[in-house]
Amino acid sequence: MALSAEESGRLTGLLDEHAERITQRWAELLAASLRGRLSQAELRRQVQELHRAVIEAARGGGFDLESESAGELRAVLAELSRGRARQGFTATETAISVYALKDVLLELLEADAADTALRDYVAFSALVDQMGLFTFESFVRTRESLIADQAEQLLELSTPVVKIWEGVVAVPLVGTLDSARAQVVMERLLQTLVDTGSPYAIIDITGVPAVDTQVAQHILKTVVAARLMGADCIISGIRPQIAQTIVALGIEFGDIATKASLADALRHVLRLTGVETARRQPRRES
Q1: How far apart are CA 1 and CA 182, in angstroms?
Q2: Distance, first Cα to last Cα, the chain
Q3: Cα(131)–Cα(74) distance, rounded to whole angstroms?
Q4: How do beta strands 168-174 and 162-165 pair?
Q5: Comparing C-alpha atoms, which of 29, 51, 31, 33 is closest to residue 41?
Q6: CA 138 from chain center: how many Å?
Q7: Amino acid 24: pLDDT
């Protein structure tokens, strides 16, 4: 909703005439709502920036937040929101930084008994703002909960542990292996080893795009944890590029068996278990 040129002029006059009182009271209201989580000096600086940006936007004629004249105001609001998010404030606490201006204006207008309609409007709009903030906060909490649940489900789906032979389980890894996912891989692998009693586990990294020191450390920790459970691990999917990277980084896998492919790793494990394997030869025509 845009203000007319006359309304913008009255707003500019009010903000200019009572500039010191407005910024001081604005900062006081924010300090109370944020419970001392920001210093008075920081709040006053932010309020003064908002105050100046609002005046500049209103001086452009009709006050429209989407207009070119409100570009500085949009930039100040965006920076304020980013700063609040990084500092751990909620969406409501961030929005109050703007809505508090209406409380300040209402206090100024209450001194003029003739402006009852305007005072009523400001009071009613404050109530609507509270309703909107409550709805927005509830919406954000629900969406964050849904996103967290979906992320957890995707994490579990992306780290399957499958039984591929009697006494042999495999963990095919696809994508980046960070700390959170490495923990899930370790937990699921150890639980599967307990459930199946398998003495061998294959960790296949064919689908891992790159192996750096951090990824290697995650894999090694998983191997050590599996050994503590009495299972030996074989790492498969060591492509030429990954092999060169591992050598360049000086990463040592020690006595851990490594294979180029999952098939080679399975063949290796079957030999360890005494199962005879042979490559199928093409049938000759008689």
Answers
A1: 50
A2: 87
A3: 24
A4: antiparallel
A5: 31
A6: 18
A7: 92
Structure tokens at 127: 């109530």
Report the predicted TM-score, pTM, of the whole model to 2 decimal places.
0.51
Tokens of 189: 């692998």
Nearest to 54 by CA among 117, 109, 101, 88: 101
Q: State the CB neighbour count (10 A cutoff) for residue 109.
A: 18
pLDDT of 175 > 60? The answer is yes
Q: Are 213 and 181 in contact (CB under 8 A)?
A: no
pLDDT band at residue 286 using 50, 70 and 90 as cut-offs: very low
Unique residue bearing structure tokens 């709502």: 33
Q: What is the pLDDT of residues 40-85, one digit of tens each?
A: 889 999 999 989 988 888 886 767 777 888 888 888 888 888 888 8
Task: For residue 253, give both structure tokens.
Answer: 């896998």
Q: What is the DSSP string of the chain?
A: -PPPHHHHHHHHHHHHHTHHHHHHHHHHHHHHHHTTSS-HHHHHHHHHHHHHHHHHHHTTSS--TTSGGGHHHHHHHHHHHHHHHHTT--HHHHHHHHHHHHHHHHHHHTT-TT-HHHHHHHHHHHHHHHHHHHHHHHHHHHHHHHHHHHHHHHHHHTS--EEEETTEEEEEEES---HHHHHHHHHHHHHHHHHH--SEEEEEEEE-S---HHHHHHHHHHHHHHHHTT-EEEEE---HHHHHHHHHHT---TT-EEESSHHHHHHHHHHHTT----PPPPPPP-
